[in-house]
Amino acid sequence: MRVRYLLVLLLAAALPVFSGCKPDEELNGYESSSTANRDQAGESATVSAVVLDAVERIQRGDFEGAKAVLDEGRITEDQAQQVRLLLEWHDRLEAYRQTERQKAWDEQIQTLRELEAQTAAAEIPDVNTVDRAMAAILLAREYAADEQQKGELLEDPFVQRIIEWVKERAAEYEQAGQWMDAYGHGYYWLMNLYKDNPDYKDAAERMTELAAIELSLNDSSCGESAAERHEGIRPEMLLRTLSALESNYVHELDYKAMTEKALRRCELLGQVLLKNSENIAWTASAEAIESWQAGLNAIRQEVAAGEDKTMKSDHFIRIFDEILALNAVTLKIPQEVIVANFSEAALSALDPFTTLVWPWYVQDFEKSMTQQFTGIGVEISKRGGALKILSLLPDTPAYKSGLDADDEIVAINGESTAEMTIFCAVSKITGPKGTKVTLTVRRPSTGQTWDVTIVRDKIVVQPLRGWRRTENGDWDYMIDPVNRIGYVRLTAFTENSAPDLHKTLLELEEQGLNALILDLRFNSGGYLSSASEIVDLFVSEGIIVKTKPRNGLATYEIARRSGTHPNYPLVILINGASASASEIVAGALQDPLYRRAILVGERTYGKGSVQVVTPVTGGGSQLKYTVAYYHLPSDQRVKNRYEMERLGRDDWGIAPDIEVKMYNYELRTMLDLQRDNDVLFRADHEQDGPVPVRHSLETTLQSDPQLATALMVAQAQLIARGKEVAIKPPDEFKPIVVQRDSDDSQTEDQTLLVPLDSDF
Q: Which ranges in the chain are annotated with CATH 2.30.42.10?
């Protein structure tokens, strides 16, 4: 179980402009040598070597080099002028971003000065003030112009006082057993402020582990009891897990590391029982806990005294049995709790993606893999305090019931949602197909409140999205209709992803598609087969990905000529949340063997491994474990994030050809605008509610420098192919106004009524 604090404080940002019009409109306002697209008529202009060189440099992110090549060549042909316009756009983009960065720095420093004045007379400021100050410190460090400015920030007397307060608070919360407070108000800040200090990172991880243990032992306010959560967990599930991993795990098991992790978790379990007895389902006396910890220390000393550096499976199993026996005579809490904690911790020593899925969680786990569930079909949020419908899903019970985006869910089956967590709301709204749920709904625009009873049905989340919805609620996939450049955002790799993408590409190609931007940002993965099928859409033959298990032969996914789409320019957007299947697609299409796509954005997550899921553990449980590492077409292995971190390196995952790092305030604004453009309202929404917010292409690009750069690259590639490209650098940058709830940063963010972001 993973517990995470999401702390985001951002400002509005902006970026350059591209002004689009319909394909059959004249290119009024665009600097272009001709209004005719020669390539559409079957004719392409000859492109000089100088222009080709400049475009090649742009595709490597060397915009200054591209400018130098054109200046040295002193050519005036149409294509050179078009490339110069792109470079002008890029220069204005970077100049504007730096101006906005300086503004963001100034605003954070101003926040610190205001907080300093407010706390001048306070010996110990309140926790919210300290959190606001730490957020400003971290953001200011991000926006600092150089290392000297960062150093001066940390030497500021007020900043030093705040940091000392944070250290003191962290220790106090930890001593009191307030694990999430120790993390959220203490070690989270210290870990991020001092990234090179392993002690703060270890403390932060310990607090989240303690909080997760406490949460697992709590009876949920949503009706789920701790006993139900642990129901069906058996010792033999771990034994069957070991048998499967011995034969099929990606490398030999490190039983000593597994034992150390398991013993640490059992020790932390004792701390939770000692300090959180009022909040958890099972308790033990202080004497029993002391005996438990003494027994653990004896086992730890016995392990440490072992002469061999390695440990065999029989020794590990014997320790597992000793732990179960120790609980029976000391803590005397249900055996299921010990099995769960021991097993989860032991497997975490292998890698973060190898885990036992206990019977209670199997249903949610399968939802996350398939992106299918039974519910009503809405996206909900608790931003601003109210449980609000953010968007409808098309052709679902919610859409047909009369609900609409912006409606507030006041109660679920008569139970008020005022104090209900968003996760509890999700669990109450979803349920078996054919069953009913009654929602009490309030429409803010009219003040009307009513009850609606909806019959749950199977919901399939569509993995493809365009850059915004059209007036009739469909996706608009043509982001640059003048130059016929498409845009597809792929949110997950499900069984429907490749067929849906294939169908969408055919529709775009009928409209004269010249280039494509494929957005894999925030796509954390899915099925390996889906990733391979998507690569196959763009590669006519050859290896897509190779998986290498510890034992047995490597397996290959091979591209086939059938169904391959035309070789138009392809640009892929990636970032640090692009993982797993996203890395396979991006890496394979970037691979030197094909060089099919240019990658723009930031280095990917760095998963680099393949998991399989098996019910071999029995009793309704499942085992997800790492079976192989994957290699790209040229046989290079995608480096694993955790292995690289242990070596003190950060070159994991897939690196972009053009790195465009987004500042925090830019990311927030981009996501807010994207949310507005994604919302699906009912067709008659304007009769009872405000006009839906839809942002123009100019504003969308202004909010998203990665997307703007991807569009530049696509246009540059078209120029290199001799196509006539219409380009208009921005004349000015207008402030972006985003409507947010006043207490947005203090409340829970949006979630879809299905668990998102899974590993395959």
A: 372-460+746-752
Helix axes 49-59, 705-720, angle to 10 degrees: 160
Average pLDDT, the chain: 87
| Mean pLDDT within 544-573 | 93
Give the CB-side neighbour count of residue 324, counting CA atoms within 13 A: 15
Residue 98 token pair: 């730096």
pTM: 0.86
Catalytic residues: 580, 591, 607
Which of the four pLDDT bands, split at 50, 70 and 90, describes residue 427?
Answer: confident
Residue 9 contacts by C-beta under 8 Å, 6 or more apart in sequence? 135, 136, 139, 664, 745
- Give the tokens for residue 379: 């996206």
Return the CATH superfamily for domain 372-460+746-752: PDZ domain (2.30.42.10)
Task: Give CATH 3.90.226.10 domain extents, the chain.
Answer: 464-656
Q: Are 488 and 573 in contact (CB under 8 A)?
A: no
Residue 550 contacts residue 252 (beta carbons within 8 Å): yes
Angle value at C-alpha 235, between 202 and 309, nearest 5 degrees: 50
Dig out the tokens for 54 from the structure: 């400049």
CATH class of 464-656: alpha beta
310 alpha-carbon distance from chain centroid? 37
Beta-bridge partner residues of 518: 488, 572
529 by Cβ neighbours in 10 Å (0-12 / 13-18 / 19+) ranks as middle
